[in-house]
Amino acid sequence: MTGERTGRTAAPAAPAAPAVDAGAAALASALVRLTHTLQHVLAEAGRGHGLTSQQVQLLCALSSGPVGMSELSRWLRLGKSGLTGLVDRVERRGLVARTPDADDGRACRIALTAAGEDLAGRAHTEVTSRVAGMAAGLAAGERAALTDAVTLLLDAAPCRSPSPEAWPEQA
What we know:
The chain has helices at 3-6, 22-47, 53-61, 69-76, 80-92, 114-134, 140-156; strands at 67-68, 96-101, 104-112. It is mainly alpha-helical. A 3-stranded antiparallel β-sheet has the order 1-3-2. Strand 2 (96-101) and strand 3 (104-112) form a beta hairpin. Helix 2 (22-47) crosses helix 3 (53-61) and helix 2 packs across helix 6 (114-134). The N and C termini lie far apart (72 Å).
């Protein structure tokens, strides 16, 4: 039946999705696979320390110093209640502490404790080692080019992850 016979009008056609070339589609697929692989790496690194992948990310994000809850929420892509629960669980383990925010008396900053710093360092080392193992087949120039390309992608992203200082270089 047509819209005239039923008295209904046809819904407007959805706009066509922009065409994506094969190279862009392959890059997107590879990056999605890499994301899943890195989540597995974080989970495996955390498992040996009794941490979830999100807890590993939290500890490493705090490696550069105390961070406010709003900034952590953006970095970790968590809502307020999810982040509060995550911080609560890690705080109960004595790995982080809430400190007053000097600029906003209603807010707090989350800081690593000495035990948290130690565990963040060990988890970071394990994650770095696992990723280095994944890249072992790449020549030094290929690793540098990959680092540069990923950095450009991250700089162009609409959302920001923790700064490079949150994952310090290992000497």
